[in-house]
Predict the 3D structure of the following.
Amino acid sequence: MIGIAYTLIIIALVLFFAHLLQGKMSEEIELIGGHVSRHAQFFEFVLRSSADHLETLRMSASQRLDHPLYSGPELLDHPPGAWLQEDGTRHLFHLDALPAPDDGGNLIGLGTLRDRSPEFYEDLNVALRINHEWSSLIFTLPSAAQASFLLEKEFKAVFPWRNSSSLFFDPSLYQDPVWIMGLPSNNPDREKYWAPVYFAGKDIGLLVPEAAPVYIGSRFVGIIAIDTSIDYLNRINSDFTYPLGLTFLVDRRQQVLAHPDLYANPLEVTATPTLDQAVPLDLSDVIDRLRRLKSGEPARINGYLVIRHGLITAPWSLFYVVPESALWWRVGSVAGPAMLVVMLGLVILMSLTYFLTSREFVGPADKLVRHIAAASNFEPVTIPTVPSGWRPWFETITRAFQESMQLIALRQELDIAAKIQQSILPRHWPKHDSYTLWGRMRPAKEVGGDFYDHFDVAETLQGIVVADVSGKGIPAGLFGMVSKTLLRSAATQGSLDIGGTIAKVNDDLSEENDACMFVTLFYAIFDPGSGVLEFVNAGHPPPLLIHADGRAEYLQGTGGMALGVMSEIDYKVSNIRLSPGDTLLMFTDGVTEAIDAAGEEFGTQRLSTLFFDKQTLDPSPVVDMVFEAVDRFADGIEQFDDITCVALRYRGIDSGFDSNSDPGETPQ
């Protein structure tokens, strides 16, 4: 009852804490979402201001003034056109003579100022007017690092003002993405757009241009652009107020525009990092999923909380990433005091129950331990005075140790039976010039039902048998010893052929077989002089013939029934001729029916491929390879059948074998 009570209390406590923490986590995620949304609004404000100012400049540039002063060479006779100067050496014109450079920018272009088309002077007037309006950027757009107005007539206005010696006009500007993206063919709707980030020098760093095409009526004039400082965007990003996680800004090209680590020194960064560089390593393989996240909706991915907030003013996304473990730690630290209070209450409850448990449990348990110690030493003990509920325990312990004595005696008998069974298996193997024989058996229990044997038949022939008795343990071992004795007797003393020998053994085993046991076997008589192997297969797995060239195939069965099932059965005989270098592997089904943790069997296919392209193998390595392969396959899973293998390798008549060498003894 105490155990049940404590279990229920612990379960209830765990469920309460889990519910509490889950609720706190949901509240924390909602709080983070609010921080991310407000942070995105800061970016929206900056970008909206830039877009509005760009639109104001474009509207000003699109106005057409019909006065002749603004559409012809007369423009050069009045300020600010009068301040334009030509540089014949460099074949360009500029506005270096601007009286108040801080109030505007410079203007630089190719060619001469005289004898140009009316459209040139009209565009020049527009550029001079915009150049005068640049100064408003200083007060309204702190994010703007510079601005430019590139016109189709091969000149441009730039802000802030710089002397023409540090400026240039390269026709390659018309291949720049800012220009290409704004052309009428690429932007027929005349929309504002964001161009790719570019590096403007170590003093300014990376800039991201927002540009818009300028038209006077239906005529395309040029592209006006305001370049936002990546340094300024990172300063805004550093103002994120939530203490955990990081935020970073990514454009539609997956280029990172703001990041607390990648832009630790923004002016030193010469190329924008990519999104896979900005996210933690555990998120680098889910970039596509991050890009498709629903705006403003938190997602848990690979142990991280991720929020993507899509901006409206620009095709950018603000990402927030934080490890879930950090959030759980923060939430847990807040809920920790409440948990401590509950734990304190649990300690008080345990203290109140201590008195009862010491009287009703600790005392009797101590006596039980002493009783077990005495009983384990087989000392005569009496059951002490204990509460009535404890007495069955003492009686059970006493009975268990008595039964253990009987089990020890039975174990000793099993060990003796196992040694007897191993002793009747052949320990020595034939020494012959023409062949080598080797075998091994491993029982699944102390006493196995498998056996093997070899013996001389007539003068030159060698009898070989591998058998498997139904069942396991001592009954199978006894039946196997009887079968082995009957077969050896019939084969070595009688005059029957191989089929008749097996039929006689079957009749003897079937007689008075009240236990209904049976044995499968493969019995062969081998002639070393000719390499001929005559055999009978009585319900046994077919042996594997491994040729000298590495090929392997199973022998065709003879269709015989297992011995001991029924009497008066005829057994068909078959034969093969072994070639020099051939190896015949005889085994029981404990090999092919071995299983792994998934319940899959070793199988005949896996056995045959084990010897693929392996040539001139001796019997001992062959048998060892089978046992090692089965053990690797089972990987520690206990097997329920005996495993037996016997291998015969035929060398041929002129093998040069040293008859004084000993192939060894069967391992016990």
Remarks:
- The radius of gyration is 48 Å.
